[in-house]
Hints:
The protein has helices at about 15-20, 40-50, 65-75, 80-85, 95-100, 110-125, 135-145, 145-165, 185-190; strands spanning about 5-10, 25, 30-35, 55-60, 90-95, 130-135, 165-175, 195-200, 205-215, 225-230, 235-240, 245-249. The protein is an alpha/beta fold. It has one domain: Rossmann fold. The strands form two sheets. The chain has a ten-stranded mixed beta sheet with strand order 5-4-6-7-3-8-9-10-11-12. Strands 1-2 form a two-stranded antiparallel sheet. The radius of gyration is 18 Å and the shape is globular.
Amino acid sequence: MYGEREKIPTDIEDLDMALNGGIPKGNVVLLSGTCGTGKTTISIEYLVRGAKRGENSAFISVTEPSIKLLENMRTYEFFDETLLDESKLFFIDMSTVYRKLGLLGQDHTIEDIDTLLNSFDNVVRALDIKRVVVDSITAICNRLREKSRIRDFVYNLSKSLTNQGATSILISEIGKGMTEYSVYGVEEAVADGIIMLGDIERRGDLIRTLQIIKMRGTPHSRSRYAMELTPNGLILVPVLKWGDTGVRI
Length: 249
C-alpha cells in the first residue's frame, strides 16, 4: 500500500475541503479563467496564508505592476503588509527582470528561454521560496510563439519549481467561450493540477464559480462551487441544480 503524499494546506478552508486537505507538495497547478473571475485574488490569498505559516512566498507579476496589485490587496482583511517587511512575502515584476536580463524584444529566442529559466531558478533558490504564483504564464508564452518552445519552457519551469520544493500556481488567461484550460493547450498537459474559474448567470447576476478539474496525488471534489471573494477570503458553496441547499441555477 502506498503512503499518501505530503500536502500543502492552502489555509483557505473551503478550498482545502474540496482538495481533501490541500495541494500535494511540489505540484504545479494551472489556475484558469477569463477576465474578472478572481484568479489573482485567490492566488495572492494562497501566498499570504503560506507566508503566515512561515513559508516564503513569491508573486511574479508579468502583466501588472506589483504596486498596483498591493493597492488592491489592502482592501482585504486577510492581507498582512508586515509579511513584506519580514521578507516572507515577495512581489516581483517581470518587466524589471526582463530589463535586467536584456530581454527587451517581443519574441524570446531559445537562448532567451534558458536565461529566463535560470532567472526563475535563481530567485526561488536565493529567497528559499516554497509557494510561487506566476501571473500569468499566458503572457510569458505569448512571447515564445512556437508550441515546441512553450512546451519546453513550461515543462522545465515546472520541473525546476518542483525540484526546489515549491508548490506553485501558474495563472492561465483564457478567452470567454473557450473550452480549453489554456491558450496553447500545452500548459494544461504539463500541469499537475487544473482549477477552473468561471461565471454563471442567475437572475441577471453573474456568480463566480470554481471547479477542480484534476489534481495529481490526491482524491478531490469535482463539484462546481459558487465562489465569493469576501474581505476575509475565499468562500465556496456547492452549486446545485435542485435541492434546498447551495446555489441553484
